[in-house]
């Protein structure tokens, strides 16, 4: 299967650099990431006790530390493409190993993992079929891939507000949920759970949202994004357009979260 390019996802070198710069500020504004990651943990199959687990796209290592507590007898590998994030995570501990690597080309042996856990990382991978193929290769028979990602419709309020201003690409693009369904169905992994759950955050103003996105390293990284600073007139237009979405709790920002749990089949004759 060829590489997916239709979504115009950002160059992963830009993603790595952006998240490396955000390492120090990330945890202070990562409530959505915490909520989603913990929700993903509740979806893991009962009785799972991996001898080795992988935190794929481990970021600051928050969930590496959670996984280390949950699976104290397992060897933990924290893998991220952003060196700045890994440097931050190493100091915090949690995983046995901290490895710089790419989800589309995992530097791990075949059949080495009982669990691959990935929360809000694989949306940056342009070739998600390769991510699934690598998961299948590196999982042990009966091993589990659990991931949370973002799909189309994420930050639709911000996207529509920008569209009213200038029609340029200001908001990161993500693949459709139907594409996740298709790719997972074709992966050779057994789909135990796959659903799309909206998470809505509220902000007092637009600047609170855009500041948080920058602090997370998740601001606009798309090809075709405007260069340079946003002019005062365009920013005022954005603020005015976004006000149309205001709710009693504040300005909403909707994240369409994909939760998935897949299992590598146990070949006939294996136990």
Automatic annotation (TrEMBL):
**Membrane-spanning segments:** none
Q: Which GO terms describe its biological process?
A: biotin biosynthetic process; methylation
Which InterPro entries does its entry note?
Answer: BioC, Malonyl-ACP_OMT, Methyltransf_11, SAM-dependent_MTases_sf
Which SUPFAM superfamilies does the annotation name?
S-adenosyl-L-methionine-dependent methyltransferases
Tell me which UniProt keywords the record has, alphabetically: Biotin biosynthesis, Methyltransferase, S-adenosyl-L-methionine, Transferase
Residue ranges annotated for the Methyltransferase type domain, each copy included = 54-147
For this protein, the record's PANTHER family field holds: ARGININE-HYDROXYLASE NDUFAF5, MITOCHONDRIAL (PTHR13090:SF1)
Give the function comment from the record.
Converts the free carboxyl group of a malonyl-thioester to its methyl ester by transfer of a methyl group from S-adenosyl-L-methionine (SAM). It allows to synthesize pimeloyl-ACP via the fatty acid synthetic pathway.
Known NCBIfam families for this protein? BioC (TIGR02072)
Entry similarity comment: Belongs to the methyltransferase superfamily.
Q: What is this protein called?
A: Malonyl-[acyl-carrier protein] O-methyltransferase
Chain's gene name: bioC
């Amino acid at each position: 299967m060829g590489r997916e390019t239709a979504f115009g996802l950002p160059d992963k070198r830009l993603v790595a650099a952006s998240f490396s710069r955000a390492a120090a500020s990330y945890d202070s504004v990562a409530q959505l990431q915490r909520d989603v990651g913990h929700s993903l943990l509740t979806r893991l199959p009962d009785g799972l006790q991996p001898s080795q687990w992988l935190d794929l796209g481990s970021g600051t290592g928050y969930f590496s530390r959670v996984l280390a507590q949950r699976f104290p007898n397992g060897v933990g590998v924290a893998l991220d493409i952003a060196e700045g994030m890994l440097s931050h995570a190493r100091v915090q501990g949690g995983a046995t190993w901290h490895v710089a690597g790419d989800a589309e080309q995992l530097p791990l042996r075949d059949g080495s993992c009982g669990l691959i856990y990935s929360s809000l990382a694989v949306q940056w991978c342009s070739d998600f079929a390769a991510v699934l193929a690598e998961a299948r290769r590196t999982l042990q028979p009966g091993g589990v891939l659990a991931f949370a990602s973002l799909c189309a419709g994420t930050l639709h309020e911000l996207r529509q507000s920008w569209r009213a201003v200038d029609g340029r690409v200001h908001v990161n693009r993500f693949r459709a949920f139907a594409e996740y369904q298709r790719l997972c169905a074709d992966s050779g992994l057994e789909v135990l759970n796959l659903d799309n759950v909206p998470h809505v955050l509220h902000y007092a103003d637009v600047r609170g949202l855009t500041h948080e996105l920058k602090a997370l390293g998740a601001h606009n990284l798309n090809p075709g994004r405007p260069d340079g600073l946003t002019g005062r007139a365009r920013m005022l237009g954005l603020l005015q357009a976004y006000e149309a979405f205001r709710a009693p709790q504040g300005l909403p920002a909707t994240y369409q979260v994909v939760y998935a749990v897949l299992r590598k089949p146990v070949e006939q004759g294996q136990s």
